[in-house]
Amino acid sequence: MLKKIALSLIVASSLFASEKIFVVERESSSIAVIENDKFKNRMENFRNTNHSVVKFYKDEAYAISRDGYVIKFDPKKEIIEAEYKTSKSAIGFEISEYFVAVANYDDKSVDVLTKDLKPLKKIVTNSRNVGIKLYKNYMIFSQMDSDIISVYKDLNEGKKEPNFVLHKEFKNAGEMPFDAMLQEQSYIMGFFNSPFFGVVDLEKMEYKKIDVFLDEKKQQVLKVPHFGFWSLSKDEIFIPAVGDNKVFVYDKKFKFLKSIDIKGMPVFTSLSPNKDFLAVTFSGEDFPYLQILDTKTFKIIKEYKFDGKVLHVRWSNDKNELYVSVNDTDKIEVLDTITWKNIKTINDIKKPSGIFIFEER
To answer: Do the beta carbons of residue 314 and residue 337 sit within 8 Å?
Structure first.
């Protein structure tokens, strides 16, 4: 009887939850909408989408444009609701219950906006700002030009629109911070020109540097330009080493475990929902390739070569599918993650880049 009830609940939840896919169209100021693995709609007027990112918070959706606009849209109705220009160039943003925080390149500031994109506060740093993250009542970001990791605290403690003040700065953190990840209470920062990554313990407010190694002989990497987005499994951290043809593996305490040899210089690593597989994309002459790694054996189990640059991948949470953005040939390829066959092509997606999934209920 209990099994029947559980099965009924699973079936019911699947009936009321579905994935809607939003794909940034890199050169046409638009976002394509895909449902049931078919092109559904095209949302226009998203400004410069050359490096746009989309994020969701409950039933809200926000996009950030290369030319400094934050755009709020309704992911169900697929219409723009508001926009606000924070600067001439924005690089990243985070969303909470009461506000949106935006890291800016051009005017060297961080903006805090209401959820309807009204300005609350501009923090002037005199540096390009990257790696913005939120943790409890803290806002953390890094200053690329001054090598500082900044931690701001919300004096309103997350109960209403925030009042951020500087709480702590970690100076000389590393040369040219670029990309960050939040792992539980750890703010992890990568650098352009330092042979390590940095970790801030946000509970203890302590900072340490973790050396980046090429192989088991612990030869240091001289340059790690861009960690892309890292991948956090239950027990390991996978870091693409763009300076070499490797993916680094660390444990949760940042002990170096292994380096995995791969086809070329990696840009992104992306873990499957069950954490069993890792998808790796590449730059340069290896742009058209995608490799799949088994996270238990650390072996490459599948390699694909597409007819254009692979700019992004996204694993489905509902189906055994992996979506691949093939920029040059205007399509999304769909891979079956059990057979690893290429099972479908979604055409007429204009110069696709980022793939973002909204779970509609």
So the answer is: no
| CA dihedral sign of residues 185, 269, 22, 13 | negative
Q: Which two tokens stand for residue 237?
A: 């951290």
CA atoms within 13 A on the CB side of 87: 25
Domain ranges of the chain: 92-211
110 contacts 132 by C-beta, under 8 angstroms? yes
pTM metric for this prediction: 0.89
Number of Cβ atoms within 10 Å of the Cβ of 50 = 14
Give ∠ CA 95-101-107 in degrees, rounded to 5: 150
pLDDT for res 232: 78
d(CA 249, CA 259): 6
For residue range 290-319, what is the model confidence (pLDDT) as tens digits? 999 999 999 999 999 999 999 999 999 999
Q: What does each C-alpha distance from 48 to 66, 111, 193, 309 come to in angstroms?
A: 5, 19, 29, 20
Say which residue the tokens 């909408």 belong to: 33
Q: Which tens digit of pLDDT belongs to each residue from 175-234?
A: 999 888 888 899 999 888 888 889 999 999 999 998 876 555 555 554 444 455 568 787
Which CATH code is given to the segment(s) 92-211?
2.130.10.10
